[in-house]
């Protein structure tokens, strides 16, 4: 899939310590056949924290923004979810619930942290130009 200037996307980090995280960005331009310049929505430059970070990323790290999916009864135990924390979406699995708080375990860090339901979304993978969930296919 090719992205164009101005499109909203997510960038999957492959850096150590950030594996399994996705960051909202806008395509600045396509640089060549396998890379883009993107401007992050929530990440800033280290030298000037008033400027949003613009970075070159590999095309295989870029995906469309996933669709919003509502689950009427909430999340179930062991659902794979994304949690919005530290300026990005982090992949984990639901391990418990207390009211509107969900406990999420992160394989990458071994931590279990409680989050309000508003910080969670069902995890979707972008595979062959389709959204795929452990629950069902999404068009």
TrEMBL record:
Residue limits of the Agenet domain? Answer: 1-70, 73-128
Domain of life (superkingdom): Eukaryota
In terms of Pfam families, this protein maps to: Agenet
Gene3D superfamilies, alphabetized: 2.30.30.140
Give the CDD domains listed for this entry. Tudor_Agenet_AtDUF_rpt1_3 (cd20405), Tudor_Agenet_AtDUF_rpt2_4 (cd20406)
Q: Which InterPro entries match?
A: Agenet-like_dom, Agenet_dom_plant
Which SMART domains does the UniProt entry name for this protein? Agenet
PANTHER family noted in UniProt: AGENET DOMAIN-CONTAINING PROTEIN-RELATED, DUF724 DOMAIN-CONTAINING PROTEIN 2
User: Mind telling me what this protein is named?
Assistant: Agenet domain-containing protein
